[in-house]
Amino acid sequence: MRIPLLGKTASVDVLDAEGWKETWLRFQNKTVDYVSDPGMWMAILFTVVKILILLIVGRLIIKLADKIIDGMLEAREKGPIHFSRRRTETIGKLVRNIVTYVVNFILILMILSQFNVNLGPVLAGAGVLGLAIGFGAQSLVKDVITGFFIIFEDQFAVGDVIQVGTYKGTVEEIGLRVTRIKSWTGEIHILPNGTINQVTNFSVNNSLAVIDVNVTYETDIDQAIQILRETADAYYEKSMDIVKEPQVLGVQTMGVSEITLRLTAECKPNAQFGVSRDLYSLIKKAFESSGIQIPYPRVVTYHRNEKAEL
């Protein structure tokens, strides 16, 4: 009863084997025809040539952009307001990286288009990804953008004394994300660049030392002014921190028990504190040697001796 079934099964296996053999032969023939087709090789050759041309053009664009950036930075250094060497290198490296990333991204899209890849979904996916990153890292993006403009606009440099809000000190480091400020007592303040809204830079222009000296009403004003002028001129001759000859302005105010004389001296940035301390000390010694008194609080006690009446 099962012999016919076995025969039928064997015949089916033979047919399947012959079908697979024919399919394999057709595949081989199509492969040989495709590989031996001159048009296919010409298309591949043209595609490879186009990709090579795109890569060469991309590299040339990057090199040309580097030359333009270097020329712009050199021109900025020769201008009246120039960057420090460290800042110039930072800006140049940052701009070069941005140009390189943009050019490489465009190259990738153009190469994909040579393989008939639909760029619509790719661009849409990149846009959605960029939007998600932008929403998820808003503070980071704000810090980076603000840091770039701080460096590019030369708002302050490493070594400058600045004040940001309640923080005042010397700039230790300027990064694209954070700025480090060291206070005069040694604390390090790390500020995200996005929080730097207003900056006061004390190291851009020369500073002014203002010295107010009080004398008594009994003092000869002309003599006191002359001593102030001689003391300031002598200190100016040996000091490296004063950039202009000090000026004695004269009487500033007249108080209850003292007359205030004012002296000013233009100094190097942030040097006014040391200059003021030195001048106060020298003026005190000069007044003492000349017999000029500096007013100070005095207490006068009166004793009344009265006899008691009986």
Automatic annotation (TrEMBL):
Domain called Mechanosensitive ion channel transmembrane helices 2/3: residue spans: 97-138
Family the entry assigns: Belongs to the MscS (TC 1.A.23) family.
Transmembrane segments: 40-62, 94-113, 119-141
Designated name of the protein: Mechanosensitive ion channel family protein
Primary localisation category: membrane
Gene Ontology molecular function, alphabetical: mechanosensitive monoatomic ion channel activity
Record has Membrane as a keyword: yes
Signal peptide span: none
Annotated source species: Paenibacillus mucilaginosus 3016
Span of domain Mechanosensitive ion channel MscS C-terminal: 210-294
Membrane topology: Multi-pass membrane protein
Function: May play a role in resistance to osmotic downshock.
Highest taxon above the source species: Bacteria
Pfam families: MS_channel_1st, MS_channel_2nd, MS_channel_3rd
Domain Mechanosensitive ion channel MscS: 140-203
Subcellular location: Cell membrane
SUPFAM superfamilies assigned to the protein according to its UniProt record, in alphabetical order: Mechanosensitive channel protein MscS (YggB), C-terminal domain, Mechanosensitive channel protein MscS (YggB), transmembrane region, Sm-like ribonucleoproteins
InterPro entries: LSM_dom_sf, MS_channel_1st, MS_channel_C, MscS_beta-dom_sf, MscS_channel_2nd, MscS_channel_C_sf, MscS_channel_TM-2, YbiO_bact
An annotated GO cellular component: plasma membrane
